[in-house]
Amino acid sequence: MKTKQLTIASLMLVFASSTAALATNGDNTLGITALQWARGGAIVASPVDIPSMMYNPAAAGEIKIDKAGFDMSLGLLNANRSINTKNRSTESGSDNYLAMGVGAVAKATDKLYLGMTAGGVAGLGVDFAGGTLTPASNTAVVSTKSLFKIAPTLAYVVNDKLTLGVSPQIGYQSMAMRTPQFTLPQTGVFGIGASVGAIYHITPKLQTGLSYTSKMFMQEYSFNGIAGATEGKYKMRMDVPQTVAGGVAYRPIPKLLLEVDVKWIDYSDVMNRVDIQGPTGAIIPLTFGWKDQIIYSLGAEYEVLPGLTLRSGYNYGNSPIGPEDVTSNYGSIATIEHHLSLGVTKQWSPAVATSLSYTHGFNNKVTSSNAPAALAPVSIEASQNIAYLQLSFRF
After folding, report:
1. Is-contact 41 313, C-beta < 8 A?
2. What residues contact residue 253 under an 8 Å CB cut-off, 6+ apart?
3. Which of 169, 219, 230, 309 can pair with 193 through a Cys bridge, CB separation 3.0 to 4.6 Å?
4. Could you tell me which residues are beta bridge partners of residue 81?
5. Rounded to an integer, what distance in angstroms lies between the CA atom of residue 207 and that of residue 251?
6. 3-state secondary structure 7-25
7. CA 385 to CA 361: how far, in whole Å?
8. Residue 370: other Cβ atoms inside 10 A
9. Angstrom distance (rounded) from CA 214 to CA 305
10. Fold topology of 2-394
């Protein structure tokens, strides 16, 4: 049994480290399952599956189950990132990644639901070879950053209109960075946060949802790194931003559901400037300059035939990187703003369903306003293709 538990834990950490290029809304994903991506992340008011409780813990009490349910989803991501200067355009290597999301919920009483969900919720990563900026320069830029969350959840159905939920959240964040100035090898830290949420049914056709996820306070990184000729312990702290999300869902006819969500991510609190402290006490400032992000999600689903449902979604979030911060973000290219999603679900029986989704993150370029004249114009750009498969079980 101990060996089995260690194997499961190892697999979870492997998936956590494999989500290093999930940058979509900044470095946050639209979701952790096929159904969530298919709706463009519009799931706060009308949760689409059990792992929706990662984003609104009240979802645990809103999913239709008799006794228990389980969802498992795996994703494949293809990310294209490039740095462009006056003389050349260089694409990042290592552009294919795996992702996952799982969740289970059980009905403890008619009003109390207990759940657990886990998945890769954020990440960034690039692999630019030396000579990216100028042919003779040693300018290799390699980075990975991933965040894997586990969220035990409790939801309580107050009455037929209101469901409340609460969830402590445990995070594991892994990171590595290499630039011409320093090399910090892969290491990881744990963090803790929490989320609360509510879903309220205004009428049988109209409902609303609201959720708040606190800042996740991460442990301090300690890298056995090197900067220049100085080798030793380099320390850094990078917390996870707080978010607020709200949505409205409307079902004009039984077969059709529409939802609109708005989310705020407080990137300026944790990604404006991050300081690395070297073994001598010297500070290396990382001036990312990220701005807060407002995200708009539109989701729709329609049952075209009994047991066959089509879904689509649109997601927009302004890039947190502005023209003045391009040259500080070669290792954290997060410029995608528009996403379009499609998905399909086949209900094989009352207990089993499978879902597929495809999302395209449209190419977006941000051009520097303060690049060196010898290189200008300098820009960073990115686009993505994401496909997910999901298995759903209800008991």
Report:
1. yes
2. none
3. 169
4. 382
5. 9
6. HHHHHHHHHHHCCCCCCCE
7. 6
8. 12
9. 41
10. Porin (2.40.160)
Token reading at 60: 């645990």
Distance CA 91, CA 171 (A): 31
pLDDT of residue 105: 98
Rg (C-alpha) for the chain, rounded Å, is: 21
Which helix (H) or strand (E) segment holds residue 192: the answer is strand 182-201
N-to-C CA span, the chain: 26
Positive or negative, the CA dihedral 274, 183, 370, 127 is: negative
Per-residue pLDDT, averaged over 27-55, amounts to: 97
* Amino acid code (one letter) for 154: L
The residue with tokens 């954020």 is 122
Identify the weakest region by mean pLDDT among 123-137, 158-172, 345-359: 123-137
At 295, list the tokens.
């995200």
Short-list 382, 282, 301, 290, CA closest to 337: 382
pLDDT at site 18: 44
> Within 13 A of 16's CA, how many CA atoms are on the CB side?
22
Q: Does residue 17 surpass a pLDDT of 50?
A: no
CA distance 59 to 369: 44
In whole angstroms, what is the distance from residue 44 CA to residue 212 CA?
A: 11
Question: Taken in order 340, 293, 335, 16, is the CA torsion positive or negative?
Answer: negative
Cβ proximity of 60 and 195 under 8 Å: no
* Closest of 110, 118, 212, 201 to residue 155, by C-alpha: 110
The b-or-e profile of 161-188 (16+ CB within 10 A means b, else e) is: eebbbbbebebbbbbbbbbeebbbeeeb
Residue 195 near residue 213 (C-beta atoms within 8 A): yes
- From 357, 255, 344, select the one nearest 308 (Cα to Cα): 344
Q: Quote the CA–CA distance of 382 and 205 in Å, as a whole number.
A: 39
CB 119 within 8 Å of CB 148: yes
Quote the CA–CA distance of 4 and 11 in Å, as a whole number. 11
Q: What is the pLDDT of residues 221-251, one digit of tens each?
A: 999 999 989 999 999 999 999 999 999 999 9
Calpha distance 247→92 (Å, rounded): 36
Phi, psi of 152 (to 5 degrees): -65, 140
The residues near 230 (Cβ < 8 Å, ≥ 6 apart) are 278, 279, 280
Tell me the C-alpha distance between 55 and 48, whole Å.
Answer: 11
